[in-house]
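quick one before i forget lol
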Amino acid sequence: MRPVAVVIVTYNSAEVIADCLASLPAALDGVDARVVVVDNASTDGTAEVAAAADPAAKIVHRADNDGFGAGVNAGIGHADGCDVLVLNADVRLAPGSVAVLQRALRPAGIAVPKLTDEEGRVQHSLRRAPTSLRTLGEAVLGGTRAGRWRLLGETVTHPRAYERAGEHDWATGAAWLVSRECLDAVGPLEERFLLYSEETDFMLRAGRAGFATRYEPAATAVHLGGESTTSARLWSLVVTNKVRLHRERFGALAAAGMWLAAMADSLIRAARGSARHRQAARALLTMPRWPAPLDGDGPPYLCFSAQDWWYHNQAHSDFQLLTRIAEHRKVLLVNSIGLRMPTPGRSTQVLRRIARKAASVAKLVRRPLPDVPNYHVMTPLPLPFYGNPALRKLNAVLVRAQVRAVSLALGIRNPVIVATIPTAWDVVEPMKRRSLVFNRSDRHSAFPEADQRAIAALEAKLLAGADHVLYVSRSLQAEDAPVTGERAHFLDHGVDLKHFQRRDTLPADLAAIPGPRIGFFGGLDDYLVDFDLLERLAEDIPEASLVLVGDTSISMERFERHPNIHWLGFKPYAEIPAYGSGFDVAIMPWLDNDWITHANPIKLKEYLALGLATVSTDFPEVRHYADRITVVQGHDAFVKAVRDVLETGGLSTPEGRRASVLSASWDSRARQLMDLAEG
């Protein structure tokens, strides 16, 4: 048997590629094989995940995402003398499958396995050559019924067809093995399709060259898939590329017939309420000769943040997500317009808070990142009296006027609006927009200093009015489910993997502190952090140093009597990994309150990315990490756990902890947000 090169094309596939690669050793049993991962300029750390999952794999880094066909062709360039197995990153081959396919390969030329979903249901992957009549048949009868008749359906749907081996016109391209003879005779994949129809074109060309596509049900694979059936944009590409394929095969007149059939299909299904078919109909009306790149021009973004870029930690999710979106789209980030006016007796450090907000407003509009010129930051002058209806209305008018003026100057029209702070509702409600995304990162009505009734009412209005509601807390998502329904989506926090890597050189002030070091970095807020627990740690483990890195809104005088507590104050985001690198144990000492119950601290993944052994108090979201983070209840258990981790090194290993978050990059999360917001 000839060697096999497994070519896997990836694009932002960090969440699935590791499992795909893990399935290959058993699938390739008895086969001389090499693995080639072609990464089409992913921004989510896919290549790093792939290299960690299979160090022997050849990783091909491409400069652009110019389509699946281009990626496959690049992979074939690293497969001299080999048969080529083209595999999607979301496919998991069953043991021994490749040898079965290779035995079926000759004289066929192309061999494909049986595809199932995760529950074992057969996916209809076999196809007949596309014709106008088959497209109309599926429009009138539905794909399942039409597929039972050769003349009326393109998709083969009869169950018996999936029980026996046989030859077919073509098959979906999630997994297909191609002989070297077929590759040499047929030539490369047509790259101009960008995505979808390139495998159809190749297999039909192979048929004309005397080769066949053979289905072999003894080889099986699980295919997660589903993007084209849920994404209106990708479904539009499926439909329009079918017309382009007909044009390339038969000419303009035949393409016109296919266009009419595809339009009829889209309109019939759109009339039944299908949003993706409505968009497909629009795409057919405006389709260019070849599709534009998937990362082409898109809508601008306007984000009402819950933080302030100029004085809050820039690790916050709004900043991480929007700076990455700004690599593809124009972005205006509006710094926090607040939840309340700081007042003596209810707020701490009142004058300091007012002064720093005034300084933020004075910065007007700036581009703070030279390498990301599309990222703009502004701070409107607010009147944050949200408990007073008249002042609240005046504030909305004032803030909206400022934001509209800046948007006009920047050329931002009809943006995707992302609101993280509920007080943005009054501002955004009348604004023209592409879509409204409520990034529900916390229950802000639980904030102790706010007018909780007024903020809860604004949260409710934003929940009801948003097109999409994003959650980082599964418990909060479950509580809101009766209101949000299908508009709710879990979008976990990410981590900056390049930034959060261990440093060999520690900052001088940290290096001067004797070890072992119990460490915490982040905001030291009295409604989040259990300061009594911190004192208990210092008293019960006197041989260790407790290092606290972060800004605080309260006095830290209570810790001055503990010689082993070292508060180093606020440190810039750029320096945080260096401080974390000096921790022997990292801690999350949270209070047990409603805010924490619905929280998902970003530092959780930052600790893991640094490989740190971590001890945390119990809250719902951390339980998903109980195999990597020691989770306990009560002060006694927390102190004991920290002492144990100092001695044993904690759960997993530094390498294992970092590997567990390699798929959780902020780039990946930003791409998910864009896909959702832009349809």
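fyi The mean pLDDT is 90.
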